[in-house]
Amino acid sequence: MKSSIRQQALLIVLLYAAIFFIAFAISKTLLYVFVFSLISILVVNFIYKNLLKIKIPHPISVTLSLIIYFGVLVYAFVNIIPLVVNQIGSFYEFMKKILDSKYWENYLVDNPELSKVIGNLADWASPRISELFNNFLLDFAKKLPGIGVIIFYSILFTVYVTIYTKWTTKSLPGLFPKRVRPLIEDFLTKLGNSLQSYVDVILLGALIVGVSFYFLFTIFLPEYTILLSFWGFITNFIPIVGVVIEWIPILIVTLGLGFKNFLIVNSIVAIVHLGAFLFFIFIMKHKADINPVLMLIFIFLVGLVYGLVGTFFAVPVAIFFVTLWNEFIKSELDETRI
Description:
mainly alpha; single chain
């Protein structure tokens, strides 16, 4: 039985996708360059679109968007990252001190059952945090020589793809047979719009959390304000799961603030995340037609195969397959029913 044009297009797209996923599994450097380049390109495009909205001409908007993006990165590497790195060691010692000293026993005297539960959790968590911290440092040291290569090629791809966006978008359908190109062009357009919406909302959410944490911890943990606000910003690039990863060290260190301040800080953190989460879900449901359960499944599966970096591009992978389903498989099924 002869396959339809839509079925042919689907098979070719899946073939290209399989090649990419296999290449990413073989070379982690290729995966890192792809993920960071994709995020960078979409963030630059976010800035570019907003510059166009205020009537700035295209060439100037492209130039300004690149200058703003890389200017922020340079500022972060010069002024923020060194502070974060300097605070990591003392923050780790601070967490260990709280877990070992069992501060919560002082303000949970009237509730020994709860104090015992927290103590058991602390006894379980303490050695695992030490192991995780040591493994992180060892892993980081091993990958340090390759970071320069990743940064170099990510910058290169970001600059060239941004400058030659029209050429790139017109050239991609050329990788497919002529008979399927109209379908591919439509698919790539919808995929690009969905990915852009995802990055827009995830970036805004991360900024909201990062800024909120900065003001919150300026009051309660001023010595770790930069570290915790940076931590909140970065972990929010991992939807849903990132909140859990982020909250664990916050829960630990706020145990040392007293019961009242512990409740205040974590209540504010919960409110901030609830607002950011509802905003994220609302936008993604309407812009990319993807639900939280599907995102969670892809975060688990992609993270399982590609590690921590995989969690950062798990949702884009989910968006890819949802768009693929809507454009090719669902349409083919609908036509078959008719």
